[in-house]
Amino acid sequence: MTTVAEHYKNHLAPVYLWMTGGFDAAVSRGESEINAICQNPSSGLSAVDLGAGFGMHSIPLARRGYSVVAIDSSSTLLDALRDHIKTLPIQTVEDDLLAFQKHLITKAHLILCMGDTLTHLPEPQSVEQLFSLVAESLHPDGTFITTFRDYTFPLVGDGRFIPVRSDNDRILTCFLEYSPDYVTVHDVLHERNGSTWQQRVSSYRKLRLSPEWVSTTLQAKGFAVRIESGLAGMVRVVADKRLTSHSRGTGYASPSI
Ligand SMILES: C[S@@+](CC[C@H](N)C(=O)[O-])C[C@H]1O[C@@H](n2cnc3c(N)ncnc32)[C@H](O)[C@@H]1O
């Protein structure tokens, strides 16, 4: 078993863009998701993308006018993002996402933690800590949005072997092994080497977070929360500060999301 950072550095990050179907296709999916959650143009507003990866959501947010701080612990994925920033207002930061506050100069209007990044945190207490930091760092009208996989219902038998992507030269399969609080993810990569195949396996642990626990924990931090369907079978939790009773009527303008 490796740490999440090692798993990405040595195993997943070098094939991550391939795994998602390529940069343009992935950003286009991110754009559809951002368009679904951000209704109006967002010029002048600030956003933080926690676990931004190669910018699947940071790039569409910046195109909508947000100034984006994109934080990730993978230098490989941040390099891929930097290759596409051009003049977009995106600041990339290589750091642990729990340290995001030290990279902000103002409160954010929108904080995202997308694509199952939340389950990569080491323990439920880290998720609670993140939610506290998010609540402190959001503008009074701000919103936190997270998408993650609900691993609370364990897959069984052959269903635990998930074909992720394959082509003539590479096959990525994921095997899930459940324990009470965690799921161990074994990423099995086969790469063609001349006339033979080379297999590499790396494993890391994800949290089994239920949407109800995430929702209740965010409500305890003062958010109004709704649970929706996200991309590719993920759960989307939208947590609004502006709709909670203590922040209602503060006179702040509504953000354009
Ligand atoms: C499944 S990917 C999702 C990437 C992106 N949000 C998306 O939707 O495409 C998880 C990302 O979180 C990053 N990550 C995981 N744990 C992290 C941590 N503690 N601090 C910073 N980045 C982290 C990984 O490097 C990876 O880029």
- Mind describing the biggest β-sheet? 7 strands, mixed
Please estimate the helix content.
25-40%
Compute the separation of the termini in Å: 40 Å
Q: How many domains is the backbone divided into?
A: 2
Task: Tell me the strand order in the biggest sheet.
Answer: 3-2-1-4-5-11-10
The CATH fourth-level homologous superfamily of the largest domain: Vaccinia Virus protein VP39
CATH topology of the largest domain: Rossmann fold
Question: What is the helix/strand order?
Answer: HHEHEHEEHEEEEEHEE
The beta-strand count equals 11
Structure described in brief:
This protein has 257 residues and is an alpha/beta fold. The chain has helices at 4-19, 23-37, 58-63, 75-85, 124-137, 211-220, and strands at 46-50, 67-72, 90-94, 108-113, 138-148, 161-166, 170-178, 182-193, 196-207, 224-229, 235-240. S-adenosylmethionine is lined by residues 4, 8, 51-53, 56-57, 72-74, 77, 96-97, 114-117, 120.
Task: Report on the architecture of this protein.
With 257 residues, this protein is an alpha/beta fold. It folds into 2 domains: 4-150 and 209-240, Rossmann fold (3-Layer(aba) Sandwich); 157-207, N-terminal domain of TfIIb (Single Sheet). The chain contains 6 helices and 11 strands. A 7-stranded mixed beta sheet has the order 3-2-1-4-5-11-10, with helices on both faces. Strand 2, helix 4 and strand 3 (90-94) form a beta-alpha-beta unit. The longest helix has 16 residues, at 4-19. It is globular. The termini are far apart. Residues 245-257 have low confidence and may be disordered. S-adenosylmethionine binds at residues 4, 8, 51-53, 56-57, 72-74, 77, 96-97, 114-117, 120. S-adenosylmethionine binds next to helix 1.
